[in-house]
Design a protein that fits this description.
The chain is of the alpha+beta class. The protein has a single domain, classed as Ribonuclease Z/Hydroxyacylglutathione hydrolase-like (Metallo-beta-lactamase, Chain A, 4-Layer Sandwich). About 25% of the residues lie in helices and about 30% in strands. The protein is built from 7 helices and 13 strands. The longest helix is centred in the C-terminal third of the chain and has 12 residues, at about 170-180. The radius of gyration is 16 Å and the shape is globular. The structure holds zinc ion (2 copies).
Length: about 210
């Protein structure tokens, strides 16, 4: 079975998720934005051996500690989509602007594109490209456990900001309605910030995309 635990990191309380196969205890960390000692301690407590880093998008609170973690544990960096190259390049400046610890750019071991898959032990997750909040944003979807890790595309009761450079409101709405909704009303999503919800609940009650 695929398991996950979400650990809020950085002053922005970003929902970093540790995902693992409970037969092999091989794990991946999604969006290590910061607080590496907290993340490493959580993995130790869980008995998870981190083998990969998966990135939804390259905002500082999601990707700020990627280079440090990859270097320290010699992990491959999977994602985001190439559309986020300029956000990766901008990590040092973003760290300064938001008064985060220093951050370095990184080179993904593998860029992700719509329709790709990522694999953890015997488990495969689907990758969907969901631009709008950032142009290179991707989400990770496990049909097996009906969970989607959606970063800053969709939140319980809200949607991602689109007022950043290369943000696009129409793209974001299309990403949500055409790429997230088909994952099913009963799929639980883990947003980049705040509590989990289901796509079905948001389709009904989210003021930005309800009724779509
Ligand atoms: Zn973001
Ligand atoms: Zn965020």
């Amino acid at each position: 079975m695929l398991q996950y635990e979400t650990v809020p990191v950085t002053p922005f309380q970003q929902n970093c998720s540790i995902v693992w196969c409970d037969e092999t205890m091989q794990g991946a960390v999604i969006d290590p934005g910061g607080d590496l000692p907290v993340l490493e301690d959580a993995c130790k407590q869980l008995g998870v051996t981190l083998e990969q880093i998966w990135i939804t998008h390259a905002h500082i609170d999601h990707a700020g500690a990627t280079a440090d973690l990859a270097e320290k544990l010699n992990l491959p960096i999977i994602g985001p989509h190439p559309g986020d190259q300029f956000w990766i390049d901008g990590l040092p400046q973003a760290a300064a602007n938001y008064r985060f610890p220093p951050s370095r750019p990184f080179t993904p071991t593998r860029w992700l594109h719509d329709g790709d898959t990522v694999t953890l032990g015997k488990h495969t997750l689907q990758v969907r490209h969901c631009p709008g909040h950032t142009p290179g944003h991707v989400v990770f979807y496990s049909p097996e456990i009906k969970r989607a890790f959606v970063g800053d595309v969709l939140f319980a009761g809200s949607i991602g900001r689109t007022d950043f450079p290369q943000g696009n409101h129409e793209d974001l709405i299309n990403s949500i309605t055409q790429r997230l909704w088909p994952m099913g009303d009963d799929t639980v999503f883990i947003p980049g910030h705040g509590p989990e919800s289901t796509f079905g609940r948001e389709r009904v009650s989210n003021p930005y995309v309800g009724g779509t």
